[in-house]
Amino acid sequence: MKKVSGKTFDGQRVVLDGKSFVDCHFKDTNLIIEGNGLFEMQNCKIEEDCRLAVEGPGQVLLHTLKMMLYSGGWMSRVADNVLHAVKQPPKARKKAAGT
Fold this sequence. Notes:
By secondary structure, this protein is of the alpha/beta class. The chain has helices spanning 56-69, 73-86; strands at residues 2-5, 8-10, 13-15, 19-22, 25-27, 30-33, 40-42, 45-46, 51-54.
């Protein structure tokens, strides 16, 4: 995962996938999740004028989940279970030995 540290983004389009943002500041920024990789944010400041968009494979996944949620029956229950799991706090990542 590419580390981005201490950077200010202002008026930009920033794809979050595959990056670890540490101590960054986002102002008037389009934050994009494409669904091509995980991302992390630690101690970042995101101003109220920022926007979040989901594009590409991530957008397909969200649309599929929405369709499942409103289909009723078994698919709806599966979607409910997925949403419940998403609402659980993330587990702390274990560091590899020697890091």
